[in-house]
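Quick board copy: two proteins, each given as sequence then tokens.
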Amino acid sequence: MKTFVIGDIHGAYRALRQCMDRSGFDYKNDHLICLGDVCDGWPETKESIDDLLKIKNLTYLLGNHDFWALQWMLTDEAGNDWKNQGGIATIESYSGGHIPQNHINFLQEALPYYMKDNSLFVHAGIDPEYPLEQQDLTTFLWDRSLAQKALKCYSKNSNSKLSPFDAVFIGHTPIPFPKPIHSCGVWLMDTGAGWSGVLSLMDVDTKETFTSDAVPDLYPGIKGRTPSKS
């Protein structure tokens, strides 16, 4: 069994398939850790979740866009903030308005974070000053402070450690690089698949990375999610 981690998919099913095919991912035997935000942006959220549900050994972490999408699935209420940040594409991906119960279960059962050995996987970030059990979902889903510190370390070529973990893998904060970067013990995995970038999949042990084509090229004529601070 190999263990892989993948960044924010944002409805880009075609990019997801490219990453899986290019890595030779084994749906029956390999382990995939998904950092969240399968929802919102490109037009194939439903297809993306269908594909993830085929993976026998999947660890799915809740993203902030997944949180918003789940609220819509449960209440049929769609706020303008969410719709303007890719939610419309998620709604339209469920043509006819039918949402499979296993898709709702999938998001309801998503984890706030995941530990493997002494590596931490989380959607947005953590506060390294406090134990994980003392932190809330808002930090895990929205906080960018760890990512911002890691990017600052990267620009300064610093070797300092930002957390007590051997490695922290995060999505949420897109980076202007075609592959994930490692900085001060943090792996930034969101390579911009939500709009003009690529989707990245990494072998956790070897750090070999597999990327999709630029996502806009996979969806010609379709505009992706508008970059924002959310």
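And the next:
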Amino acid sequence: MNRFGNLEFGSESEDRSQSAGELRDEKFYFTEALSAFEEGHFEKALQKFAKVLEFNPQNVAAWSGQVRMLIELKEYHEAKVWADKALESFPRDSELLAAKAVALARSGDLKAALAFSDASIEERGDTPYLWLARGDVLMARNEKRADYCFEKAHLLAPQDWFVHWLASRIRLFYQKFALALKLAQQALACDSTRCVVWLQLGLCQKALGMVGVAQTSFEQALQLNSFCREADRALAELKQVGWFASLRANLDGLFSR
């Protein structure tokens, strides 16, 4: 069964493992989903949003959450399928329209992506995600208007680390490394206790060739969460690059004598 089927029917194993008397309802799973999202655990968040919908199929935020997690996991076709299913019930929800626009843009269907993005704005929603999603679509189209969208999201949530982190992830995806770094720094200024922020900062620094500071950022991420596999892997890659660079320098010195 594909991922779409798994989302449709959920998992019974988690229900069987619940301790007696423990209340796990729609609110519980939605909180768990948001927490997993903020920790960068997109697969886990996807599963939790699916559990929310088992309790309440009318929870539109859980529907859009699933689409967004599939996008973060780079499963754009599945994201579009899930968005279409959700839009059957909520055809005018601005965040669902925005999420589908991103899925289309990252799949290369730029014309349809812009149409859905326009529709999301026309619904008069005014959330940071709506503008981040439009910025995503416009970046896929190589349009400078994307900058305005990121600025709009920033104005709506100037002190929200999560919005800056998401914006940085979008910029990094489109290889705008310096802009991604600036946004990661803004996220860090809002909350320096988040492992995912230090990880994002390190990824931006690494992309710009800032090896020393990237290593420090990954180490900080691991201090906050010693189980962060992404930071551990990135740190190992940096050390390997440093080892090869040192070996090459030694060999160059040897043959130049």
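Board note added afterward: The chain has 15 helices and no strands.
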